[in-house]
Structures are given as structure tokens and as C-alpha cells.
Amino acid sequence: MSEAITNAEFSSVLKNHSFVFETNPSIAISFSCGSDSLALVILMNNWIKKHDGLLTLLYFDHKLRKESYLESKYTKEISKKLGINCKILMWNEKKPKTSIMQRAREIRYKKIINFCKQNSIMTVMTAHHLDDSLETYYMKRKRNADTPNLSGIPFKNTQDQVQILRPFINFRKSRLIKTCEKNKYKWFEDPSNQNENFERVKVRKVIASLSKNKRSNLYSEFKVNSDENKFFETQLAKFFIENLEFNEYGKFTINKKKFKIQNKSFQIEVLKRILVTCSGSVYSPRSRSINFFLDKYLKLENIKFTIHSCIIKCCSDKILIFREYAKTKNFNPQQLTIKKQVSIIWDNRFLISSIFGDIKCFIFNDTIWLKLRDHYRLIKDSQNIPYDILKTLPVLSYKNKMIIPFLTDKEKMVSLGISVIFKPKIPLTKKNF
Predict the structure, then answer these.
(1) Best exposed site among 80, 116, 250, 407 by fewest CB in 10 Å?
(2) Residues 172 and 131: beta-carbon distance below 8 Å
(3) CB 250 within 8 A of CB 349
(4) Could you tell me if 188 and 254 lie in one domain?
(5) pLDDT greater than 60 at residue 145
(6) Which tens digits make up the pLDDT trace of 301-324?
(7) 87 and 156 belong to one structural domain
């Protein structure tokens, strides 16, 4: 029989899972008006009062359902009743015709993260629970049968310096419903949760249809894989810290000797994660392509292998990985203008912004280098930046002066009010590769 989550039990979760909060914490909750996020609001409201903090509900109106107006209204009502802040965020932009749910999720997180940064909120909580995590594991297993140590949804991760915490990950949904019922709160049911056009809804119904014994086996398998995943992630992080060198212009250097002694599945995962980050993609390369490289080329020296829009170059003692110039050249416009105080992501990898004035951004080419070579050659050589990598950088023009980021002195860049930061969609430190 499921029971409501007590305040003491919830406080214990926050204390025992290495969640870090500032003094007088300011915390936002991604609120959907469903039973899951409502239970989180109830318990967090009690906790935050004891810690002299500030709670803010963030409801994101996707503008996709007619019920969203009523849910926005309910968010304001529940906030007023509990004496906490709320903010309604909206997706007013033109909606895509395909992959709309994925895009909606990306926009929701982006706007929530931006709101938190603008309002000095370092923590966002979501109400993902054990059933959600099991569904995620099941979907990953179907799509990535050859990937070791699959897991569900992590307890916590970080996006753009904002930590995202999920204190309900070890609680069943039934307990969240009981928590709402005990406190006599009503909630909204999202009709999309019954729409079998969505993979998660299909998976949820498949799991619900399993016999008690099969469902128990699935949970056991999930638990074993999750525990193995934690160990695997720890080993992977240790390898990166000890054997990977990263340069902010987009070069990754692996200690070849230490890499070669790892087992093959570990090698594949190392390369997958670096390639995703290096390419600026959100998708992993196929294991088959990496397998081919490992079997045919890893033992060789002075060879180049193209995979996932990147170049892998093997030397005697190291493996270099960097962006493929042809992909950068074909992916980006030859020239674009970046408006003052507007940031853009160039080549899916570099965040470029200018404080004082508009700047122009060009794709690197041999003609540009001939003009700038005398000025930058010594710096390029002293930093040991190969020309193949140099070509994958943007070239900027400000007040008729050409600038190559990472070769231009940082103090000079600051004085010009120009910033170029390596910021791919999936950083190497992020969990969901």
C-alpha cells in the first residue's frame, strides 16, 4: 500500500544525496500542474520555510494545448495560496512541424535556465520519479542495445551553471499521488499522457501491461544497470581527468598508451563522448564506425580518420580529435553579422557575443590567413595549434580589424567587448551523451 511522503522523509532525501544549497536558498520548481510537481511544491514549501529560503514556481506554457490557460491560472492560484512566487514562461515562437515534443522540451529548459540565471537562482527542481526513470531506461535499452551500463534519469546534473535536482527519483508515482491526496490538493491530468503517438506513452503502457513477475525483473535489471552505470561514470571521469587534455579552441588530446590498455567497450564510450562534444552534435556516432577505427587504425601512426564530423589523428603517443574543416565550412554561412549585445552559437560549438558594437563573422580560409599570417604566426606556433584546427575557428571583424579568437590576447578581447567561448550542445561533463 503506497503512503504519502512525509516532510521528515523528504528532508532526509535532500540531506543525504549530496544536494548543495546556499544559505537562505533560492530554488525554482518546474511546475506542470500535475500530481508529480504538485507533490514537490507541497514538500518543498515546508522545507524552504524552515531554511528561510525563497521558492518560485515556473510554469511553461508551450501554447500547444487549450488547457494551458487554465493551468497558468491554477499556477497563480496555488502560488498565492501557499505564499510563494510564480512566473509564467511562454513559447511564443513559431512551432516546428516535426519533433515538436523534443523541441518543446529544449525550449522549456532553455527558458527556465535563462530565467534562473537572470534572477540569481542556482537550483531548479523537477518532479521526475522512479517510474519516469524506469521508462527512460526502457527506451534507452531499445535504442542502444550495444551501449554498456544504461541508466535512467540522474538525481542531478548541471546546465549552464544552474543545477537541476530531482529529489523524487527513488519514489514511485503512487506515493506522489498519495502526498497530494493527503494534503487535499487537486491537480490537472495532461491529456498528452494518453497520446500513443509519443514513445514514452507507449512504453508506459507496455510496462503497465507486464505481469507482476516480469515487471519485478525489469526493476531488478534497471537497478543493477543503474549501479553499474554509477561505477562506469566514475571510471570514465577518472580517465578524462588523468588522460585527456582539452584546449579551449576545440582540440582534444588523449594519452594513447593509457587509452590502448582499456577494454574495447570503454574505448568506444570515451570516443563517443569526445566526438559528440567536439562536433557540437547532440547525437552519438555509431559504435560500428568507432569499432572500425579501433580495429584498423588505432595501432597506426600519422594517420587521419574522419568520423562524426571530426578528425581523429593518431600519433606515436597521443590521439588528437578536432572538428573537420569541411563540415564547418558547409554548415555555416560564409559571412554573418552578430548584433551588439546578442549572443549566437556558431558551428554548434562557439558562443560569440559583442558588448560594444556589431561584429562580422567569417569562415576561415587560406586568403584570410595570408592577410593575417604575419601578425598571428608566432602566436599560433607557440600555442602549437595545427593549421587544420585553426581553420575550424571563426574569424571576426570589428571596426575593420580582423580577429582570430584564441590567438588574440584575452585582455585585448575583453577591451573590445568580444567574447568567444567553446560551448557545444553536449559538454563533456554532461551526463546524457
Answers:
(1) 80
(2) yes
(3) yes
(4) no
(5) no
(6) 888 999 999 999 999 899 999 999
(7) yes
Does a structural domain hold residue 121? yes
Amino acid letter for position 196: E
Buried b (16+ CB within 10 A) or exposed e, 388-425: bbbbbbbbbbbeeebbbbbbbeeeebeebebbbebbbb
CA 301 remoteness from chain centre: 34
Strand order in the sheet with 401-403: 335-338, 359-363, 394-398, 401-403
For the segment 396-415, what is each residue's pLDDT rounded down to a tens digit? 999 989 999 999 999 999 99
Task: Count H helices and E strands in the chain, helices first.
Answer: 15, 18
Residue 190 has pLDDT above 80, yes or no: no
Q: Indicate whether 124 and 177 sit together in one domain.
A: yes
Sign of the torsion formed by the C-alpha atoms of 224, 229, 230 and 231 = positive
Are residues 54 and 156 located together in one domain of the fold?
A: yes
**Distance (Å, rounded) from C-alpha 285 to C-alpha 275?**
7
CA dihedral of residues 62, 65, 66, 71 (deg, nearest 10): -60
Domain assignment present for residue 215? The answer is: no
pLDDT class of 146 with cuts at 50, 70, 90: low
Cα–Cα dist 229/235, whole Å: 10
Same-domain status, 283 and 379: no
* Identity of residue 73: K
Which range marks the domain in which residue 108 is found?
Answer: 7-209
Q: Using CA atoms, how far apart are residues 298 and 158, in angstroms rounded to an integer?
A: 33
Q: How far apart are CA 273 and CA 210, in angstroms?
A: 34
Q: Which residues contact 106 (CB under 8 A, 6 or more apart)?
A: none
Number of domains in the chain: 3
Return the residue matching grid coordinates 507533490: 39
Cα 176 from Cα 198, distance rounded (Å): 23
Residues 263, 304, single domain; the answer is yes
Among 236, 158, 214, 182, which residue's Cα sits nearest to residue 46? 182
Closest by CA to 246, choosing from 294, 318, 295, is 318
For residue 389, give the C-alpha cell: 584546427
- Single pTM value for the model: 0.76
d(CA 210, CA 208): 6
Residue 233 located in a structural domain: no
397 domain residue, yes or no: yes
C-alpha atoms less than 13 angstroms from C-alpha of 103 in its C-beta half-sphere:
12
